[in-house]
Amino acid sequence: MLLQPNDQWRWFMGEDQHLMLDLGEDMLFSSPYLAKHLVCSSSLEQRFSVEDTGLYYRFLDSLTGMGSSAQRVQAALNGVAVARFYKPLMPQSWFFEPQADYHQPELGELIGLDLVDEQLIMMVVETSPAACVCISLSGKRLLGGSKQLPNFGAIKVMNDRLVSLDKLSELQEIRQVG
């Protein structure tokens, strides 16, 4: 079941200092994002805006075919939360392998980031010509040393680290045929 935004949805800061979304009808969405990582005050109470709705549907469209509808809604709402309220981040590209092809991502695009021994699936929630902010769709991962990236964790990376999942699927199809 996909949730349809309405004018009753409201962002607020929960008692545990996590960003929350009141969905009406006694339903609450709790994001994993703490107040200390956000650009809003602890007294936040804002409506889910028209821009939020646009982002929500854009992210849902990009997540088509991934997981259950509840997982897609969760990822889309977390994407909106990061795009709207997350503090600006400095790039942390050194965790990921550079790519031969430079990829300029689109908002909501699913991309890959190569660690030494695996590829993380991410969703782009903010773009610029040089870098993008992504949220992890790969679950909790150790990036290096003691740096952990939780599920839906936000990270900013330079665009020269991004792997287009479309190009990756095309290569896999060519390898299967050849």
From TrEMBL:
Q: Which keywords accompany this UniProt record?
A: Cell cycle, Cell division, Cytoplasm, Septation
Q: Name one GO cellular component term.
A: cytoplasm
Pfam families membership: ZapC_C (PF07126), ZapC_N (PF21083)
Q: Write down the InterPro entries for this protein, in alphabetical order.
A: ZapC, ZapC_C, ZapC_N
Q: Does the keyword Cell cycle apply?
A: yes
Q: Where is the Cell-division protein ZapC C-terminal domain?
A: 88-166
TM helices/strands, residue ranges:
none
Localization, per the record, is: Cytoplasm
Q: Which GO terms describe its biological process?
A: division septum assembly
Looking at the record, the residues that make up the Cell-division protein ZapC N-terminal domain are 3-87
Q: What does this protein do?
A: Contributes to the efficiency of the cell division process by stabilizing the polymeric form of the cell division protein FtsZ. Acts by promoting interactions between FtsZ protofilaments and suppressing the GTPase activity of FtsZ.
Q: Which family does it belong to?
A: Belongs to the ZapC family.
Protein name according to UniProt: Cell division protein ZapC
